Amino acid sequence: MLNFIGVVPFSPAIIPEINKKNLLLTKKTISELEKFSEELAHFKPDTIFFVSPRGPMRYDKFTINIEKNLKGNFNKFGIDNQKDYFYSGNYSLAKSILKKLRQQYFPIEAVQEENIDYGTLVPLSFFDKHFKKKPKIVTLTFSSLSWEDHFHLGEILKEVFAKTEENIAFIVNGDLSQRTSDDSPEKFSPYSVKFDQTLIKLLKNSETNKILKLNPEFCKEAGELGLRSIIIALGILNKTRNKFSKISYEAPFGGGYLIGRWTLK
User: Fold this and answer.
1) SS3 category, 168
2) What is the model's pTM?
3) How far apart are CA 83 and CA 73, in angstroms?
4) CATH of the structural domain 2-264, one choice from 3.40.50.80, 3.20.20.140, 3.40.50.970, 3.40.830.10
5) I want to staple 192 with a disulfide (CB 3.0 to 4.6 A). Which of 53, 179, 184, 260 is the partner?
């Protein structure tokens, strides 16, 4: 059963060991993510299901990792002798999802990748210290298919989660616009701030239909990265009483960092 659903940033810039020189610029995000992690741990999830933009992406299909033994570290970001993270994948849940999607001829591909992608590892590194018992994890990567396909995927996931006795947390790993300032590698766009403000407002007002009808060119120009992940979450929440709360938002390096949670009613 799904009991917790939220959205967090995944930028390595919020890892203290990676971004020591500019740590004060992400102080708010780090502080609130620690509180978010404590709250998540309070729910004692058996499994955390991540939607990551940094997994093995396919243009025309979604991917789900069915690897049983997972590991990761931040060595690729220049951190030597940093701790390794070891987690078990929830093979049974991943296979159930895969079976359900294939029965409906949904475009899905199973992958076996033992390395935890950094889109998952960044938030997981915050969560990790708060667990008394490690949950299993499952990671799914979005595609370039339509927003409607992503929404429908969420609806199917909801069906699978409802038939699962274990306690599941669903985490959307997604930054918002990647072009909020000249500090961004993707360069500033005047549409960026408007996109982030618009999306957060629509989430708070539960205006899912308006999110699905956002102008694709507007979203592309804003350099959005987390919209598809969020739409999957909205599909899960379809026909469910819920309320979205923004916990924090800031954009210190040209990327919008949103932390938020949907309360299930």
Assistant:
1) strand
2) 0.96
3) 7
4) 3.40.830.10
5) 179
* Helices vs. strands in the chain: H and E counts, helices first: 8, 10
**Mean pLDDT lowest for which of 14-23, 162-171, 224-233?**
14-23
Separation CA 12–CA 114 (nearest Å): 20
Domain parsing of the chain, residue ranges: 2-264
Over residues 189-200, the pLDDT tens digits come to 999 999 999 999
Predicted confidence at residue 44, as pLDDT, reads 97
> What is the distance in angstroms between the CA of the first residue and the CA of the last residue of the chain?
14
Q: What is the DSSP letter of 150?
A: H
118: Cβ contacts below 8 Å, ≥ 6 apart? 10, 12, 54, 72, 74, 76, 77
